[in-house]
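Re: the request from the purification team.
They wanted to know what the chain is likely to look like in 3D before they choose a buffer screen. I agreed to run a prediction and write the result into the notebook, where they can find it.
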Amino acid sequence: MQRRNICTEAGARSDGLMIVSVIFITAFTYIALTTNPVYTGIGVGDRAPDLEGQVWNGNNWVEYNLADNINSNWTEGEPGTWTMVEFMDTNCGYCQKAAQEDFPSAQAYWLGNGENSRSTPENVNVEFLAVSISLWSEGTEGKDYGRTVIQDFTSTYGHTFPYMDSQDNSHEDDWGRLGTPTYFLIDPAGIIQYATPEADANYAIWDAMEEKIPRGDA
């Protein structure tokens, strides 16, 4: 009569379990190391949500995708594009005030090529994007919406940067319901470096840009 070698069978099962455990731990470690742990949200340190649609560039309505400015592997000191995003409403009094008083000088300083323009290192770019949303419902007396309103707004204030049409408030799926104006500064890796909702009252978007965006040779 042949006896079963229980010790050998138990050892084989133990070895098999150990191999499976090693494979599981290795796979888990690989996933942990290769998966980007940054949360997507609208706070400082979050990865900015998607933002795409049609923008008015001063001449035509064209497609725009914030992702085109983002390199998730970017590190400080490398070339890249910093994006200042303003969520605004063309009917908002504060937005109109900013459009008239803040943006002409900011546009010349950050986007211009004059002697008083802000210097940045070679291949480091700065872009503005205004996102036109709707705080009031369609048909509200005295509140006008539509693409011609956006076009007239940019022309009235002499803005040369793109304005996105999000007057259907489709941005709310990813960005939530925002007041206006609300500003974000997004670095070339797509990480939010400034967000109005959590910023100190005396720390404006322009202060954050001056602090965060590297300066080039004078």
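For the purification team: The mean pLDDT is 89.
Please add any questions underneath this entry.
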